[in-house]
Amino acid sequence: RIGTKKKRVTFEKAVKSYLAQELSTGLPYDIFMHSSASHPMLQVADYCCWAISRKWKDGDLRSYSSIQKAVLTEFDVFQRGRKEYY
User: Fold this and answer.
1) Alpha carbons 46 and 1: distance in angstroms, whole number
2) CA distance 60 to 82
3) Is the separation of the CB atoms in 67 and 54 below 8 Å?
4) Contact, 42 vs 50, CB < 8 A?
5) pTM of this prediction?
6) pLDDT confidence bin for 32, thresholds 50/70/90
7) What is the mean pLDDT of the chain?
């Protein structure tokens, strides 16, 4: 879950802006932000995202090496720009 309400709103705006550019107009979608503690699989997804983030941001491969065999692809959602949304 993204910390403060302000950060969540900022993140949601960024996602909506990106999806508006990438999806066909009128295609419905919902954005849900559940606490990773609410479901074990969310905890797994959260850990995987964290490990991949540490790999790219810090060059730290310790956590990534434990999930590497399960990672099929990685997509950099911020590849088009340098603006930080949160």
Assistant:
1) 9
2) 21
3) no
4) no
5) 0.55
6) confident
7) 84
